[in-house]
Design goal:
The structure is a homodimer. The first copy, chain A, is mainly α. Chain A folds into three domains: about 130 residues, Alpha Horseshoe (MgtE N-terminal fold); about 120 residues, Roll (CBS-domain); about 170 residues, SLC41 divalent cation transporters, integral membrane domain (Tetracycline Repressor, domain 2, Orthogonal Bundle), CATH 1.10.357. In chain A, the strands form two sheets. A three-stranded mixed sheet of chain A has the order 1-2-3. A three-stranded mixed sheet of chain A has the order 4-5-6. In chain A, helix 18 packs parallel to helix 20 and helix 19 packs antiparallel against helix 20. The first copy, chain A, is globular, with a radius of gyration of 30 Å. At the A-B interface, helix 1, helix 3, helix 11, helix 12 and helix 14 of A face helix 1, helix 3, helix 11, helix 12 and helix 14 of B.
Chain lengths: ~475, ~475
């Protein structure tokens, strides 16, 4: 197969799409904004209807509140229900308030069960009751059961629509069944083979069904190494399984091992994104990404972490306060002291971030923890020595006192070593205590490196300078 | 479908697996370690052969170098080639050195083209030549073309094995073709429909092929809204497409729009993990996760960022140095000054992290940038006022001077507002300049909040206290 482009053959309309041709463009957003403000609602509807549900969700998210409401009024009941499952929760709530319980009930009944449950679980109880009252009994049961599963569990994540076939069926019977069945899922990638009690015995990828001759039994071509997932499994564990074994779909089972649903990889991509975002936000002390949150909500949720940080900053100041007498005699110390604390904090955060990510990805465990700690302490020492020399020279040249250079160098080595040690021990310890290492590690770590940094530098100065 | 567990039916061996039953267990690692050290190589081989390739890769990664080499010697040529594609690059390099060019050439020829290219691209040129010399011509071409594509492009990511069928074929002809074809990919989820020039016209999910009667033409059931990917597209863009539209596989096309390969969702899960890890590591000033890196490599790569941090810390010290006279007259200032800088730095990092993530996920764009900046400045002001009051009170109670309380409060409001502003402007500006906002934002931001924090606090003190 040749890769040479053949420019003579290409007409303009034949050019393959470029990256910027996909997704919602700035121009489309501006066009809709302009049309909304000019009252050209027919134009708005035309643009919106042409969009994929995911892009329409992006459009709704990127509009200011007034324009958003105007757009929703324009679309009215013609709003594609799929859009709801693509919206971020904060914006989805606004949209749901706009379309009301009746509109939402109708929208939910058009979605696959996992998407419906995901939207339903965020509603307050009264709203949930309103919705349930408007749904047919079968659908009501799916939602009620859905939210009865633990939060962040496989049960919440799964869709109830699944194709399970008896092991005794042949490939031909299976294909015939699928050609006539009405209640199949929209998308599926594997068939699950079950025994008469509906217990999962194996799976057959659709590609294998298509490649096998009709008389062959499903039990002959099934893969028995099926990674069934108990409905109680945490979604982070489920994501690990998909990632580890490159799964595309896998059955969810009840306590007796019976297939009750399936999880597909598109849900897992969402979970992976969420978990990654979660770790990133927690490390920075943001509850969850509040891009779409209201000002006051954002202020309040950020303040929580800032209060903790204020506490630790005051603690560091208390340490400095111990050395007021020293400081009043050598102001140079006040000028230099933030350097030691800052270097320790940054070196520690490097180690910490590697540890938190490795724990999340299950790359760090009891088997290699000791080696990791040892390595990080050595790296801390080596960088400590390098930066002791650099900082010592800077301090000496600045203030002309060799002793200050030596003292800041010694404090640097101590603090960088402590940074390496606490950057590993803090997250490993929190993990052991079943506390999410992402959420609390940063506070502990910088408190330690600030306190040790100020104490080592000012303490050594108090002993040797005075 | 009922979810009631039926405990009377469950025998012990029927219990469905729990989360901890999947993946490599600590016990298995310890068992292999013990067997290796006791020289029970038959036992080692037995445990290793029973593992999934992904788990065997984890086992190899978690062993210390000596044990790792012993395990590789034990397995010898029976090592499953798939294992190579699951290893992290640092460990993979060790394994490749161990098995040599001949072993690697044989391993590569057993892998799908995307996995083979991924391993091949990391080798140095001489090693690559050695490998190529040992491969059959067809396979050689695939590797040579593979690494000719730009790094991190769709071309590198794709596999060449793909099922493309003519639009004129019926479902029956397609199924018959698949039953007899030999060179099909191991796993595939969609069939791509092409015209006589091999240009992509649409796709048909396998589930739809199975549900459709034999006489129906592929062109009648195909979805023409196919998201073809030019081979030059950046992998981050590709991941965005998969995520945005919930894709499972999609064709890669050349400049003329001809199908030359496909990308599947399992590769995208890897890309998403890599990109998330990348942002996390860059924000913390770690080049890339160096969990498996050697001590000296790790020390050196971390030192690069620490040098930058030293520069900014010295800059902050220079600002403090401007106020030596003030500090020598009021040591309380030296005790309190880190609080202002620390609070500004943390508030700014909160904003920055939200912005960096939103940019990566394409949630932040020109359309909503102004609204985001405005909101963050207001949040900064509000939290500034809250923490001005808190910190002012602490300072007043500690040192008994109301003026110091007022000054630290004023400095806090200024710094938190600046934090909100620079936490948004810095990443947006870097993005505009086509610099990865994750990599450089943190340095800029903390430099700004340190300098402004120290300057505002000490400057106000110099004016009003003295």
């Amino acid at each position: 197969m040749s890769l040479d482009p053949q420019p003579t053959e290409i007409l303009v309309e034949d050019a393959p799409p470029a990256a910027e041709d996909y997704g919602l463009s700035e121009e489309q957003i501006q066009e809709v904004q302009a049309a909304l403000e000019a009252g050209e609602f027919a134009r708005v509807e035309e643009v919106a209807q042409a969009l994929h549900a995911a892009d329409l969700a992006d459009l709704i998210e990127s509009l200011a509140t007034d324009d958003r409401n105007l757009l929703l009024d324009t679309l009215g009941p013609s709003l594609d229900p799929e859009v709801l499952s693509y919206l971020v929760p904060a914006v989805r709530q606004d949209v749901i308030e706009k379309i009301g319980p009746k509109g939402l009930a109708s929208a939910l009944s058009h979605l696959e069960s996992d998407d419906a449950v995901e939207i339903f679980e965020d509603l307050d109880e009264e709203f949930q009751r309103h919705i349930l009252a408007q749904l047919p009994a079968g659908y009501r049961l799916v939602l009620e059961e859905g939210i009865a599963f633990p939060e962040y569990s496989a049960g919440r994540l799964m869709q109830r629509e699944v194709v399970a076939v008896p092991a005794a069926w042949s490939v031909g019977e299976t294909i015939d069944f699928m050609r006539t069945a009405h209640e199949l899922p929209d998308d599926f990638y594997d068939l699950f083979v079950v025994d008469p009690k509906h217990k999962c015995q194996g799976f057959v990828p659709l590609s294998r069904v298509l490649r096998t001759r009709r008389p062959v039994k499903m039990s002959e071509v099934m893969d028995t190494d099926v990674k069934t997932i108990p409905f109680t499994m945490d979604q982070e564990e489920v994501a690990y399984l998909f990632r580890q074994y490159g799964l595309v779909s896998t059955p969810v089972v009840d306590d007796a091992g019976r297939v009750i649903g399936m999880i597909t990889v598109d849900d897992i991509v969402r979970v992976i994104d969420e978990e990654a975002e979660d770790d990133l936000m927690k490390l920075a002390g943001v509850g969850e990404s509040d891009l779409y949150g209201r000002v006051w909500q954002t202020t309040r949720s950020r303040a929580t972490w800032l209060v903790v940080n204020l506490g630790t900053a005051v603690l560091a100041s208390l340490v400095i306060g111990l050395f007021e007498a020293t400081l009043s005699q050598a102001v140079a110390l006040a000028v230099l002291m933030p350097i030691v604390a800052s270097m320790g904090g940054n070196a520690g955060m490097q180690t910490l971030t590697v540890a938190v990510r490795a724990l999340a990805m299950k790359d760090l465990s009891a088997a290699n923890a000791m080696r990791f700690i040892g390595k990080e302490v050595i790296v801390g020492c080596l960088n400590g020595v390098i930066f002791a020399v650099l900082t010592g020279l800077v301090a000496y040249l600045w203030f002309g006192q060799p002793l200050i250079g030596v003292i800041i160098g010694a404090a640097m080595v101590v603090n960088m070593m402590v940074a390496g040690l606490s950057g590993t021990l803090v997250p490993l310890g929190l993990e052991k205590l079943k506390i999410d290492p992402a959420v609390a590690s940063g506070v502990f770590l910088t408190t330690i490196t600030d306190v040790v940094g100020f104490f080592a530098f000012l303490g050594l100065a108090a002993v040797f300078v005075l």
